[in-house]
Specification:
12 helices; globular; single chain; 302 residues; alpha+beta; 8% strand
């Protein structure tokens, strides 16, 4: 990273990119008529509001939760430009509006996070641990069983991102994901932020959320191995309780990977970078223009 440059992060959304700078979040979306619209919000991260929340390990879980909330908000913002006509709200949305009035959108967002969390727990925690349980009669080692569980989890994760990538809409999001990475690389290099310059860079970035998720799975194998292999209920309880610790440790590793270029960091980053072949696509110049617009707005260069 060039001297004096802030560490920028981002996320692909529907026909656009969200970029997060030091104290600003900017989301740029290309509308159906070709116009690029940008929404800017000045936000102080929770880790900067409270010293306790900025402590290593703790800050990782805090950043994860905050990123989930911001991610859903920006996705909803981008989706609002592509809603067909003035469709009537669903019965559920109507019920929530009557019940919570002006706070309905916030409540629906929290509900969405809870549902997404439960789905993720079932798919990436419950299913792998139940699958590995079939090997318990022939394998007595808890470490081996945890490795099998981790392998099942990785396979499910790879299949999941591969299959959803076959959808046209998700494929477009993956292109904007590539545009996000290329633009950030261009910014960190110190080169002028233009679509043509950004196109020259790699679409694989070591600080990507894909790397984070993959490393979470690897770290979880090591941590879960310390908890033994008892009943399914007990194992699930341990996995939920230890999630903040695992995400916190992984966050520190990702921060280090983003700043280091030694041989060990390259080895640790390699699997996640290869996995980005599934979660990113080569963007075109128009998609890079959107990503650069968001990045400049987030860094106050517009």
């Amino acid at each position: 990273m060039s001297k004096g440059k802030n560490m920028v992060g981002g996320q692909a959304v529907i026909e656009g990119v969200m970029m997060r700078g030091k104290d600003c979040i900017a989301t740029s979306v290309r509308k159906s008529d070709g116009e690029i619209v940008t929404d800017k919000k000045y936000v102080i991260p929770f880790t900067k509001r409270n010293k306790i929340l900025s402590i290593p390990i703790i800050r990782g879980f805090v950043v994860l939760i905050e990123s989930m909330v911001i991610g859903i908000q920006t996705l909803n913002y981008s989706a609002s430009f592509f809603e067909e006509g003035e469709s009537q709200p669903s019965k559920f949305e109507g019920f929530m509006q009557k019940l919570f009035k002006g706070k309905a959108e916030d409540v629906i967002m929290i509900f969405s996070i809870i549902v997404s969390f439960i789905f993720a727990m079932g798919l990436f925690l419950a299913l792998p641990t139940m699958g590995a349980n079939f090997f318990r009669k022939s394998i007595n080692s808890s470490i081996t069983l945890n490795i099998i569980e981790g392998a099942i989890r990785v396979i499910i994760f790879i299949l999941y991102i591969y299959l959803i990538g076959k959808m046209d809409d998700i494929n477009r999001v993956y292109q904007y994901h590539g545009a996000e990475h290329k633009s950030i690389f261009c910014y960190e290099s110190g080169m002028e932020l233009t679509p043509e310059n950004a196109q020259k860079f790699s679409r694989f970035h070591p600080r990507c959320g894909t790397n984070f998720l993959f490393l979470v799975m690897i770290v979880s194998i090591l941590i879960f191995s310390l908890t033994g292999w008892n009943s399914i209920l007990e194992r699930m309880l341990y996995r939920i309780i230890l999630l903040p610790v695992i995400s916190g440790i992984t966050y520190e590793i990702i921060r280090w990977l983003g700043r280091s270029s030694n041989k060990l960091s390259k080895i640790l980053a390699y699997p996640g970078l290869q996995l980005q072949r599934l979660t990113t696509r080569e963007p075109d110049l128009e998609q890079l223009e959107v990503a650069i617009t968001a990045l400049k707005a987030a860094e106050g260069e517009e």
